[in-house]
Amino acid sequence: MVIFAKNMGKKGILLVNLGTPDSPEVGDVRKYLDQFLMDERVIDVNIVNRTLLVKGIIVPFRSPKTSKLYKEIWDENGSPLLYFSKIQAALVQEQLGEDYHVELAMRYQNPSILSALEKMKAGLVESIKVIPLFPQYASASSGSVIQLVMELVSKWATIPPVSFVSSFHDNELMIETFAGNARKYQPETYDHVLFSFHGLPERQLLKCDHTGHYCLKKDNCCDTLNDTNKFCYSAQGHDTAKLIAAKLNIARKDYTVCFQSRLGKEPWVQPYTTDVLKKLAAEGKKRLLVFSPAFVADCLETLYEITVEYHEEFKALGGEHVQLVESLNDDPKFIKALVEMAKA
Ligand SMILES: C=CC1=C(C)c2cc3[nH]c(cc4nc(cc5[nH]c(cc1n2)c(C)c5CCC(=O)O)C(CCC(=O)O)=C4C)c(C)c3C=C
Ligand SMILES: [Fe+2]
Ligand SMILES: [Fe+2]
């Protein structure tokens, strides 16, 4: 009874990031990739083709390679993505205080969205606000989180008010945190700045354009946000980049928005980061400062792909240095951004 009374009326805040394997061992990586890539919003082809592609080709061939990469970034704290997400949730709970019940979940693997929602239900929360930890909206990331939460909560006998943060690509505190992290590197001393976002198949971008004649059809369709492209992942990414660049007085000619981590042979959003590295090296650029503003915590894509892979690739092309700007992690300004979103 005491627990019942204590939890009554709390506002539930569910923070959700993408997820990571339970360990870097091949078996756990296989389970993670299988759950992740069988999501119909991630590999958005029919179930037969998705099953053949994911279970027959990608998971068996990719798991051993991805396991090696996870072993490179796994440290005594485990997966950086999970480690920092847990800290973010704990700090948000601390700042929101007793009137709130904060849970962290991962879209894939653990802690699961189901277990987090069950804890909230047991805690008798009076409402649930879901904050997918992806600054820019994509059907494959935020969309997938929102769909699963709706599916699960829709089965409850009592459905509390549920709300969702769809994206926060232009959040002032988030922009300031990225800019602040970059200042110590003195961006003006670099030859060029990259805003390297996680990639997305072009097909998925096109689905966001309900007019059918704007996205990827008009020149520079993503350069400015308007009513047609306001949910476009790429257009929101360009906006994030523009806002960070403005804070740091980086001129448009001195930065490039690009997309990394392509999977498969179909066209993904362009330009690809690897192509941009080649172009910049050919122009004689030596030192690059790289932001990764699709992520709010360090993860495989920042710690390995940018810091190791792109660094080595650029050096092999004649460049000298690729400097990653740290992710938001436990920065107090970003925690404040989350707290404000939770309260809004
Ligand atoms: C911005 C958020 C993300 C979007 C959008 C996204 C789309 C997307 N991803 C894949 C395939 C893979 N992504 C992988 C890792 C990974 N992806 C994100 C975020 C988004 N993905 C994060 C944060 C991470 C790292 C997780 C960590 O534990 O550190 C991987 C696994 C690694 C690998 O094998 O390369 C795959 C695979 C697709 C196909 C896709 C869009 C359709
Ligand atoms: Fe991904
Ligand atoms: Fe677009």
UniProtKB/TrEMBL annotation:
Fe(2+) binds at H198, E301. The keyword Protein transport does not apply. One of its GO terms (biological process) is heme biosynthetic process. It is found in: Cytoplasm. Keywords: Cytoplasm, Heme biosynthesis, Iron, Lyase, Metal-binding, Porphyrin biosynthesis. It catalyses: Fe-coproporphyrin III + 2 H(+) = coproporphyrin III + Fe(2+); heme b + 2 H(+) = protoporphyrin IX + Fe(2+). Pfam families: Ferrochelatase. Its EC number is 4.98.1.1. One of its GO terms (molecular function) is metal ion binding. Pathway: Porphyrin-containing compound metabolism; protoheme biosynthesis; protoheme from protoporphyrin-IX: step 1/1. Belongs to the ferrochelatase family. This is Ferrochelatase. It comes from Pedobacter heparinus (strain ATCC 13125 / DSM 2366 / CIP 104194 / JCM 7457 / NBRC 12017 / NCIMB 9290 / NRRL B-14731 / HIM 762-3). The lineage of its organism: Bacteria, Pseudomonadati, Bacteroidota, Sphingobacteriia, Sphingobacteriales.
